[in-house]
Amino acid sequence: MKRLYNILPHFIQNLLISLYNILAYKKRYGGNYSKYFKGINQNYTLSKFELEKIQQQRFSLTIEEAMKHSSFYQKQYSKIENPNDIKNITQLPILSKEMLRQNIEQIKTIDKRKGILSKTGGTTGKAIEVIFTLDNIQERYAFLDNFRSQYGYVLGKRTAWFSGKALLSKTDTKKKRFWKTDYWFKVRYYSTFHIKTPYLKYYLENLIQFKPEYIIGFPSSILEIAKYGIQNGYHFPPDTIKAIFPTAETITEEIRNCLEVFFKTVVYNQYASSEGAPFIFECSKNNLHLEMQSGVYEVLDQNNNPTKSGKLIVTSFTTKGTPLIRYDIGDDIELSDNICTCGNNNPIVKTILGRTDDYVYSKENGKINLGNISNTLKETKGIIQFQVIQNYPESILIKLIIDSRLYNSSIEKIFVQNWRDRVGNEIHIELEYVSEIPNEISGKYRMVKNNIKHLIDV
Q1: Would the pLDDT of 458 be above 50?
Q2: C-alpha separations of 150 from 136, 145, 201, 267, 448 in Å
Q3: In 185-330, where does DSSP find H-type helix?
């Protein structure tokens, strides 16, 4: 299918993308989507007490359904008294990424054919595969759309989207055309695999010509375009972009300031995950709020005791197909004691610490961000974990821990090609199969170790 797509004319490719989205959105925005959207909107100004009551009810239902339909949770919780009482949450064992991967068949509650499959590497480099029910997907989009709608966004508004979709052909790159367009929903998908200095001019000038009202996607890719525009004297048309919604990566003050100054708009941050973590949304007062209606957040230290700043443990209410209960998602956050005046009474997060803006550098394709790197695991099996190390501009070393029962030469070929799609054909890729990838001195795992940042003109 991909081979056929690549030889089709640009116009036909755009039509196929439009058709694909029409079919996909019909599922996402059907069923109970409208009910969820309306309910989330109505509950926006609930008191902390009312939000806690909803959270307790949903937690109880989540545990009960998991124990009823998942043999893994039946076994885990069978000897725990009242596991569905949120007061007893600390008695439930923590679910690691490796436990999820190893026990996925016992954890999931529905067959792949009856749900919607999400394959993701995640920013910790572990291969994760989860299944959502259609109802899960509809509720998750209701949460996202409700957040974005506060700043005027609705599906069909002209949007520039920067994400890890490999949609370009060789003809596109030869013609310096780094985007595809959904004509029906007015979304232009910009490739994040070709963000490098020689091409940034074409990205920026097309953005100016396209006049999007919203920008969504990897902030590191959008940042490169903004920096290029500032350095080369471009002036982005004012009153064009109403908001930027970054995804998948940490937003620093430097990134936020650069994007807001160049694009003459406001950045509104969000946090979720492909696995289906509960949501964190930024409000109009620029505070990050834990969305208690979407799940339970715990912040724990290395001894699993509650703390203000530490590892994030999540329990999601929107992952019935693959229940995530006390799941160690691999990110850190810092909580705040402040009270927001925006009307939203969900707790405030001071900082999201976990997702890093590290990258791999390719002379051919520029910076490859963490979102694109994690997606190199798509369509593979048997890769338990990997770490990419770059000590030289012309080469990268990828350490892999594999499950030999699932991994083979064909999977290796797919994995390497996924990397080639991102870094190009010039850079040398070395694979090293190992039994362990050690953590840093801090105790944290790094998927990317870039040791040449000092050599790159940023």
Answers
A1: no
A2: 22, 9, 32, 13, 35
A3: 197-210, 219-231, 253-263
